[in-house]
Design brief:
This protein folds into two domains: 127 residues, Beta Barrel (Lyase, Ornithine Decarboxylase, Chain A, domain 1), CATH 2.40.37.10; 253 residues, TIM Barrel (Alpha-Beta Barrel). It contains nine helices and 18 strands. Helix 5 links the parallel strand 5 and strand 6. The chain is elongated, with a radius of gyration of 23 Å. The protein starts with 9 loop residues before the first strand and ends in a 6-residue tail after the last strand.
C-alpha cells in the first residue's frame, strides 16, 4: 500500500493543520501581537504562500531567504532579518529592499548598517538583540541562546552605552528590542519570565532616554511534542494568558509586539513517508532499514523519545515488537528511533510524524547521493498537490 498512490520517500504537509494552528494561535494572542513565520523551519514556496495569504510576516536569516520570501510575494515591510554574521552584501540587499527591521547582534554590524544606509540615503529601522544578565534558563537545553558569553545579541550591561552611541548615527532608527530564549521550549513559564525581563528592560530604557520604543520582538522557541509516548505538551493557553497579563502589567498595549514561530506553526503538519527495504535481527535486536533517513530528517535523532511512527498498512491491534529504525545511509549515525511497531516486513510503508519543520531543510541531502524526496501538500479539498521545489 502506498499512501496517496505516491512512491516513498516523500514529505506531505497538511494545509488544514497549518492554517488551523496559525488561526488558533493568532486568536489567543493579545491584539497588539504580530506573528512572523521563521522560514528556516520550512521554506517550501507553497507553504510560504499559505502564510503570506494569511497575513503573517516573514522572519529571515540570510540573503537566500530574502530571495525566497520576495519570490513568494511577501511585501518587504513584512520582513525582518535576524541572526548573527550577516554579510555586508546581505545587509545592502536588505536595506535596498526596504525591509521592515534588521535585528542587530553587534556594534560592528550597526556601524555597517549605518554606512550602507547613509550611502543609500535611507534611515533603517533596527531592533537591538539583548543577551540578558538575568534570565530563566531553558531546562535540558543543549545549546542555550542567552546568558553567559554568546554569539547571539549584545550583552545587557552594554546596552545603555550602545544606545547613546547609536543615537548619534543619522541613518539608524532604534525602533525597539529583541530577545530569543532558545529552541523547542516546553516550559511556558520560561518564555513568560524571560519576556517579563525584556519588558522591564524596555520600560527602564524609555525612562532613561525619555523616549518611546515602538517595537518589541520576544522571539519564539515554542515547543512541539514529537513522541506519541510522551504526554508532555506545550500549553499554548498558559503562554498566551501569561503574555496578556504582562502586556497589561507593563502598559504595553501601544507597542507592536512580534512573536516568531516556525516549528510550532508547521511542525505538526508534516509526515515523512518511507518504505521498509530490509529487516534483520542482530544479536536479538530487530533492525528496520528504510529508504530514507537523516539525509532528509537529520533532526529526528534530536527528538527526545523519538518521533511518533505509524505503519500505514498494519492494524493497530496487531502484536507489537521492539525495533530500531535506521536509514539506508552508509553511516551508523543514520538512526531514526527505537519504538514498538507491528511485525514489520519488507515493502511496508512507514509514516514518521510531525516533520513539517526542520525536516528536509535541515537534512544532509548530498550524503551518499541518494535521491531527493518529493514534497506534497494535502489541500483543503483532500487532493494532493506536488509542491516539490525545483532541484531535480
Amino acid at each position: 500500500m502506498k499512501k496517496y498512490g505516491l512512491q516513498p520517500p516523500y514529505f506531505i504537509y497538511n494545509e488544514k493543520k497549518i492554517k488551523s494552528n496559525l488561526l488558533k494561535f493568532r486568536e489567543m494572542l493579545p491584539k497588539n501581537f504580530d506573528i512572523y513565520y521563521s522560514i528556516k523551519a520550512n521554506p517550501n514556496h507553497v507553504i510560504l504562500n499559505i502564510f503570506r495569504q494569511l497575513g503573517v510576516g516573514a522572519e529571515i536569516s540570510s540573503g537566500g531567504e530574502l530571495d525566497l520570501v520576495k519570490n513568494a510575494g511577501f511585501v518587504t515591510n513584512r520582513i525582518i532579518f535576524t541572526g548573527p554574521g550577516k554579510t555586508t552584501r546581505e545587509l545592502e540587499r536588505a536595506i535596498l529592499s526596504k525591509i521592515y527591521l534588521i535585528i542587530v547582534e553587534s556594534l560592528n554590524e550597526i556601524k555597517r548598517i549605518n554606512k550602507i544606509a547613509s550611502k543609500l540615503k535611507i534611515k533603517q529601522k533596527i531592533l537591538i538583540r539583548i543577551n540578558p544578565l538575568i534570565f530563566c534558563a531553558q531546562p535540558d537545553s543543549m545549546f542555550p541562546m542567552i546568558g553567559g558569553g554568546q554569539k547571539f545579541g549584545i550583552d545587557e550591561e552594554e546596552i545603555l552605552n550602545l544606545i547613546k552611541a547609536i543615537l548619534l548615527f543619522e541613518n539608524i532608527d532604534i525602533s525597539g528590542f529583541h530577545f530569543f530564549t532558545g529552541s523547542n521550549i516546553f516550559d511556558e513559564q520560561v518564555i513568560i519570565n524571560n519576556t517579563e525581563h525584556l519588558f522591564k528592560l524596555v520600560n527602564s530604557y524609555e525612562l532613561f532616554f525619555k523616549r518611546k520604543f515602538s517595537i518589541i520582538d520576544i522571539g519564539g522557541g515554542l515547543a512541539l511534542n514529537y513522541s506519541q509516548e510522551n504526554n508532555k505538551h506545550f500549553d499554548i493557553k498558559k503562554l498566551t494568558k501569561g503574555l496578556s497579563f504582562l502586556v497589561e502589567k507593563y502598559n504595553l498595549k501601544d507597542k507592536n509586539i512580534i512573536i516568531e514561530s516556525g516549528r510550532f506553526l508547521v511542525g505538526e503538519s508534516g509526515e515523512y513517508i518511507v518504505e521498509v527495504v530490509d529487516v534483520k535481527i542482530s544479536r536479538g535486536e530487530t533492525f528496520v532499514i528504510i529508504n530514507g533517513g537523516v539525509n532528509h530528517i537529520s533532526r529526528a535523532t534530536l527528538a527526545k523519545n523519538g518521533h511518533e511512527i505509524e505503519v500505514m498498512n498494519k492494524k493497530v491491534k496487531n502484536k507489537k515488537i521492539k525495533v530500531s529504525i535506521f536509514g539506508n545511509l552508509n553511516t551508523p549515525t543514520d538512526f531514526i528511533t527505537k519504538t514498538k511497531l507491528p511485525v514489520i516486513k519488507i515493502g511496508d510503508i512507514i509514516s514518521i510524524k510531525k516533520v513539517g519543520a526542520y525536516g528536509l531543510t535541515s537534512g544532509m541531502p548530498l550524503f551518499t547521493s541518494r535521491p531527493f524526496p518529493r514534497e506534497y501538500l494535502l489541500m483543503l479539498n483532500n487532493k494532493v498537490k506536488n509542491i516539490t521545489n525545483a532541484r531535480d
